Amino acid sequence: MSEKPTKKWIKGCDPFDGTPRYTFEGRDPSFTYSSIAVVITTERRRKYQWDPKSCRNFYTGTVYHMDEETFDRTDECEHLKDCKVATEKLFAQYCELSPDDAEIGEELLGRAFGFEQTM
Fold it and tell me: Which residues pair with 21 in a beta bridge?
């Protein structure tokens, strides 16, 4: 049995070509206030170049660290669930390397506008 994603992923679309993309915790690279951004992009192409009926979605997860201007990508996955798990593992590695930058984007957004989060 394969692993399951632990975070709640949100589906969106790429602002340039409209392809589906996924992110979590307000970490979309286009509008996050967090220094670690996470996104899964979709590319539709043939699995076998000789077979025109083999078009599938392929998913690639990317984790960006904005302050250090670095990023890493996961291997290309045929299944979204596998890509989510691989991206979460990569995100956890980034959080271990930079624990001060691992804050949730919504908390940073509230702090940027002077709101405090109450629980």
Answer: 12, 41
Q: Where in the chain are the domains?
A: 10-112
Phi, psi (rounded to 5 degrees) for 90 = -65, -40
DSSP one-letter code for 74: P
Q: How long is the chain?
A: 119
Mean pLDDT (the chain, rounded): 77
Question: In this predicted model, what pLDDT tens digit does every residue of 41-87 receive, in sequence order?
Answer: 888 888 888 888 888 889 999 998 877 788 889 999 999 999 999 99
Contact (CB, 8 A) for 106 and 26: yes
Whether the CB-CB separation of 36 and 64 falls below 8 Å is answered with yes
Q: Indicate whether this model's pTM tops 0.85.
A: no
Query: Which among 72, 78, 4, 11 is positioned nearest to 37, based on CA atoms?
Result: 72
3-state class (DSSP) for residue 53 = coil
